[in-house]
Design goal:
Layout: H1 6-18, E1 41-45, E2 48-51, E3 56-59, H2 74-85, H3 95-107, E4 113-117, H4 120-135, E5 139-143, E6 156-157, E7 167-168, H5 175-178, E8 181-184, H6 189-199, E9 203-208, H7 224-234, E10 238-242, H8 254-259, E11 265-268, E12 279-283, H9 285-288, H10 307-320, H11 325-346, E13 352-356, E14 359-363, H12 372-375, H13 380-392, E15 395-396, E16 405-406, H14 413-429
Parallel strand pairs: 3-15, 5-8, 5-9, 9-10, 10-11
Antiparallel strand pairs: 1-2, 2-3, 4-12, 6-7, 11-12, 13-14, 14-16
Helix pairs in contact: 2-10, 3-10, 6-7, 11-14, 13-14
Bound molecules: pyridoxal-5'-phosphate.
């Protein structure tokens, strides 16, 4: 540990005694990049984070996708300050939740009715419950390497083949839960078909990230999402798109409007809160009307739809709805990602790029990444070397080869140029 990270190291020592593993989410740990203290950040401003030792970083962690606005965005910060003065929680309906539901419907027309919840985990868990209630069926098919939060069913790994049920991927998840989950490879319609042939009448829903963010960024093959939709519906199952990363990231209307495939249910999170805890699930009215108090599927939340998150969200969507925002993000991300690929290759590193709008992953491998199996070929050691080299020079990435670089509306061309120059030094040294 160098003097550069002295305060972070001291905080980590204290954290280890009282916070499990020293972190409040395992994805923040540096376990997969060689271990040691993670960097403790104390301040964010625009595209920058500042750590407890006063070091500045250009932030590409982007709070794992939530940080679309950079830090302390003036309009969002002002909306939060105004809202805080009027009271942060009422425990009653409020006008802002109505407006937000309307704006979400305008952006993603498939979300005819929504419910606001607090985390992505809760959104997916609730969407799955409604799908089960509506269809009267127990099983869920999901895709290998897609992440849907940490509720029990979401932590079931693949069985040995598409017609096999899954096995718990975490201690504390029961075999009983695993009996209701089947996991098939992403981008593989044949495996999905086989799973539906084996279990069809019991399958409530097929759940996936329409564009993947969780084994690095990977695109659906042409026709894949249409095929998933057709197969699900042929077997009487619902289609759930988990757009917790892609919603308002790859396009204002998410992957579903970008790619023109309409799911029955959608989950949103991360970006929609404008930096505050907020997620949502929703979809066709006839399905969502199964939720209490209209229907028998129970779902509730003390913090749900709180006026603080709602007003932050409205300010955030206002920023994103402006003309040219996504075009600028697209151009900036292409500039940065293509520059990184060229620089890595110039220094003899085999890399593959997965990019969707303002999020992208550099995979250290020879073959394009199309599913979890191909993503795993990305060399962990080379990723760790890049990660450390960048961190030591003031560029912060999420500490995993399966995460994405996230751009915000506050990154400037000067930040991107600085990043490319530093990355070139790092690639030369690796
Ligand atoms: C696609 C997707 N779904 C669900 C979740 C879970 O969201 P949360 O961490 O807010 O519970 C995540 C979080 O990374 C995610 O990326």
């Amino acid at each position: 540990m160098t003097a550069r990270y002295e305060q972070s190291a001291a905080l980590y020592e204290r954290a280890l005694a009282r916070i499990v593993g020293g972190v409040n989410s395992p994805a923040r740990s540096f376990k997969s990049v060689g271990g040691g203290p993670p960097v403790f950040m104390m301040r964010g401003q625009g595209p920058y984070l500042y750590d407890a030792d006063g070091n500045r970083y250009i932030d590409y962690i982007g709070a794992f996708g939530a940080g679309m606005f950079g830090h302390g965005h003036p309009e969002i910060a002002a909306a939060i300050a105004r809202a805080a003065e009027r009271g942060t929680i009422y425990g009653t309906p409020n006008p802002w939740e109505v407006e937000l539901a309307e704006r979400i419907h305008a952006a993603l027309p498939s979300m005819e009715r929504v419910r606001f919840v607090t985390t992505g985990t809760e959104a997916v868990m609730s969407a799955v419950r409604v799908a089960r209630a509506f269809t009267g069926r127990p099983k869920i098919i999901k895709m290998e390497g897609c992440y849907h939060g940490h509720s029990d069913f979401a932590l079931i790994a693949a069985g040995s083949g598409p017609s096999q049920l899954g096995t718990p991927d975490s201690a504390g998840v029961t075999e009983g839960v695993a009996r209701d989950v089947i996991t098939v490879p992403y981008n593989d319609l044949r495996s999905l078909e086989e799973a539906l042939d084996a279990w069809g009448p019991q399958v409530a829903a097929v759940l996936l990230e329409p564009i993947v963010g969780n084994f690095g960024v990977a695109h659906p093959r042409p026709g894949y999402l249409d095929g998933v939709r057709r197969l699900a519906h042929q077997h009487g199952a619902l289609l759930i798109f988990d757009e917790i990363i892609t919603g308002f990231r790859v396009a204002y209307g998410g992957a579903q409007t970008l790619l023109g495939v309409e799911p029955d249910l959608t989950t949103l999170g991360k970006i929609i809160g404008g930096g505050l805890p907020l997620a949502a699930y929703g979809g066709r009215a006839e399905i969502m009307d199964w939720v209490a108090p209209l229907g028998p599927a129970y779902q509730a939340g003390t913090l749900a739809g709180n006026p603080l998150s709602m007003q932050a969200a409205l300010a955030a969507l206002e920023v994103l709805a402006r003309p040219g925002v996504y075009e600028q993000l697209e151009a900036d991300a292409a500039y940065l990602a293509d520059g990184l690929v060229a620089s890595a290759r110039r220094h003899g590193h085999a890399v593959q790029l997965g990019r969707a709008g303002s999020m992208f992953t550099l995979f250290f491998c020879d073959e394009p990444v199309v599913d979890y199996r191909t993503a795993q070929r990305s060399d962990p050691e080379r990723f760790a070397a890049m990660f450390r080299g960048l961190l030591d020079r003031g560029i912060a990435l999420a500490p995993s080869r399966f995460e994405a670089w996230m751009l915000s509306v506050q990154h400037t061309r000067a930040d991107l140029e600085e990043t490319l120059q530093i990355a070139d030094e790092v690639f030369a040294e690796m």
